[in-house]
Amino acid sequence: MSFYTSLNGLKNAQTDLGVISNNIANAETNGFKKSTVAFSDIVAGSAFTNPKLLIGIGATVEAINQNFKQGPVEQTGNALDLVVNGDGFFTTKSAISGDTLYTRNGSFEIDQNGYLVRGNGNQLQAFATDAAGNVTGTTPQSVQIPATNATGAQFAGVAVGKNGVITASYADGTNVAVGQIALATFLSPGGLRQEGSSNWTSTGLSGTATYGGPDSGFYGGILSGALERSNVDLSEEMVGLITAQRNFQANAKAIDTASQISQTIINMHT
Do 98 and 41 fall into the same domain? Predict the structure, then answer.
């Protein structure tokens, strides 16, 4: 039995090493959220087993939990680099599948059609507003900036306020609001499914998204000209890496010891 107990220990240590390695690999990924492995012990026995004589049979991976603590903020000076300063996820529409994706990576740009997109082409979702910035709709939709305003003046620039209102400026000096960023929150963000590129999708474990405007209620305000970096602490991960390595070595040594004991017993019989 000791062989299988230690083998489970080796597998668990390998899982821990894999999660830590992924954290370290994404230490420079904007909007990335680190994960940690939670283990639980395994005990097997029947109703007739003396509880004082129960022996555990190892451990198993109970969960790989995501940590959504906010990462450090880096100033960039780009008006379309955005940070949610508090709770909430940016909502985007996948350019490939049309699926709704959620992200903390606020690196946006304007594409050739005037849509606000991330580098992968996913379109930022916002609430409709009038020209003054008053919200007129509650259904998130893609944000598109007109190349010219009503008088034919050319687009000159864009700004995003703390309340998430996106304002386009034109060559004739006029400013027109084109939408308010729609932030999403979840009852259990730990249940979100990782999709890569700092994107998540909702699941039955996370619950459905609840949308709201930035800087209102429990939704964080928008900080323009900055990006949220990964929340991975390299010092903490290095300590965890050493611990996982020692755990792996200890389980390997336990297997070696059990093998030696078995060989000794076999030699006694021969």
Answer: no
